[in-house]
Design goal:
This protein has 467 residues and is mostly beta strands. The protein is 7% helix and 39% strand. It is built from 3 helices and 29 strands. It binds 2-acetamido-2-deoxy-beta-D-glucopyranose (2 copies). InterPro entries: Haem_d1_sf, WD40/YVTN_repeat-like_dom_sf.
């Protein structure tokens, strides 16, 4: 008691000597005449589940002067959520593999860093914050990677109607499409957010009447996002209603649907359903497929389904969907199944998060899919989630961390916080080899949870690849 009183007195005298300046926060959402009046009617108050405290300054981790040809950027959360979230830059070259290069902080903490994506010209990387809204913070964080070895924080922003940033795709004009899985209070519908080349949000799709009725009619919680620029198509997949992963929760509400969109019009063509799918986490067009086919992952079923957007169903409607491959007992209800494919469209990889397993399929013949991994083998991974085939097509980079909401939510998947750099063999099979361990290196800043990765490959200086 006495000590506390003393401390308070000391604090008061300090405050007296150095008066605390007025705290002035700009309105989180600027007033827009006509629109703001409308928003009061449709947007319920935003919950603040965590105090929006600023991050604590962290001891600087010295940067290195390495300039590898292959660079890995990992979008990483401060594990104890007191320090700023950050982008960690690493070498992926063989001779300096896993060596740390640089750390770039964002101005806030507790965002639950989620997916990461590069712009078409490789000068910008954007990372989304899954749970930024719980601290009423910005949701998308932009990094300038003009100097690929010294990324700098450029800016951040938030949408007006939607939040919970997920998948990211670069637009040819320099901007981005980003799925925002929920509304600004984490309910359905979310939106497909679009930015211009300066990364200002220019739209939250859909906007036309028919598509708006579609997303109000059935859960729209877009997580997966894939775009076929030549075929003028977008596919989004609905995963979970985000607010239902937070307490108090009567159980997670999973979605069973995908939306097929007209890219040019940004309008929804139709809803496709995987009956009892239980969270369609991811969707990806198969590179080079002549019918613009795409694969989607159904988390409850542990299955991969295939969409043929130009085939017509028995009612004459555009778009069909059918089972492609059942990943088996171990794959059911594994919370998350994310995917990536090789650029030749031959091999597909899937992380089964709570099964601690990465599955590999040879899909060169879609009528005769072959499994390349043994589902019964114990693999050296805990909680694998985000994955990317490296630009050279020789490796699979997997981050071993999905989501840990802690006490405020009901999703806490075990993880070992490693980045796996798995060799892809000629037949597409996986050979677990090198890893980057995030557990000890970031001890001085409360630990680290790497969620996702972007890779730059400068092996051919004429044709750098940003992926
Ligand atoms: C995996 O184990 C299950 C149960 O022991 C068995 O039925 C199945 O055949 C095994 N699969 C493979 C590919 O070995
Ligand atoms: C692991 O990768 C290194 C570098 O490519 C390679 O030299 C080594 O043979 C690989 N190890 C195994 C066990 O495959």
């Amino acid at each position: 008691m006495a000590r506390a009183a003393l401390a308070l007195a000391a604090l008061a005298s300090v405050a007296f000597a150095n008066p605390v300046p007025d705290l002035s926060l700009p309105p989180l959402i600027p007033y827009i005449s006509g629109i703001s009046e409308l928003l009061y009617q449709v947007v319920p108050p935003t919950p603040i589940l965590q105090a929006p405290l600023p991050p604590i300054p962290a001891a600087k981790i010295p940067s290195s002067n390495l300039k590898p040809k292959k660079v890995g950027y990992f979008w990483t959360g401060s594990a104890d959520q007191r320090y700023a979230d950050f982008l960690a830059t690493y070498s992926l070259d063989d001779d300096t593999f896993g060596e740390f290069i640089h750390l770039t902080e964002v101005p806030s903490s507790g965002n639950s860093p989620h997916h990461l994506g590069p712009s078409l010209d490789g000068k910008t990387i954007v990372g989304g914050g899954l749970l930024s809204l719980l601290k009423t913070q910005d949701t998308a964080f932009y990094f300038d990677t003009t100097d690929p070895y010294r990324p700098t924080f450029k800016k951040s922003n938030r949408a007006v109607l939607s939040s919970i940033a997920d998948e990211i795709r670069a637009k040819p004009d320099g901007g981005f499409f980003i799925t925002y899985m929920g509304s600004t209070v984490g309910t359905s519908p979310g939106r497909l957010v679009e930015t211009d080349k300066d990364f200002n949000i220019i739209a939250e799709h859909p906007q036309d009447l028919a598509s708006t009725i579609n997303i109000l009619g059935e859960t729209f919680a877009p997580h997966g996002l894939s775009i076929d620029w030549d075929a003028n198509l977008i596919l989004t997949s609905d995963f979970v209603v985000p607010v239902t992963i937070l307490k108090p929760s009567a159980g997670i509400i999973h979605a069973n649907t995908l939306r097929l969109w007209n890219l040019e019009k940004r309008s929804i063509i139709r809803t496709l359903t995987i009956p009892n799918g239980g969270g369609i986490q991811d969707v990806k067009f198969i590179p080079g497929n002549k019918e613009s086919a795409a694969i989607a992952t159904a988390v409850h079923l542990g299955q991969v389904w295939i969409i043929y957007p130009f085939r017509t169903d028995k009612d004459g409607k555009q778009g069909t969907i059918e089972l492609l491959y059942d990943l088996g007992e171990k794959a059911r209800d594994t919370i998350a199944i994310y995917s990536d494919l090789t650029q030749d469209g031959r091999f597909a990889y899937f992380t089964l998060t709570t099964a601690n397993h990465i599955a590999a399929l040879d899909i060169s013949d879609l009528d005769n899919v072959k499994r390349l991994d043994d589902p019964n083998v114990t693999q050296p991974t805990i909680g694998p989630h985000y994955l990317k085939v490296s630009p050279d097509q020789k490796h699979l980079v997997v981050t071993d961390y999905f989501v840990q909401t802690g006490e405020i939510g009901i999703i806490n998947t075990p993880a070992d916080f490693k980045a796996l750099y798995i060799d892809i063999e000629d037949n597409g099979a996986l050979n677990f080899n090198r890893t980057i361990d995030f557990t000890d290196f970031y001890k001085t800043r409360g630990g680290a949870k790497p969620h996702s990765v972007v890779i730059y490959d400068f092996t051919d200086p004429e044709k750098p690849i940003y992926y």
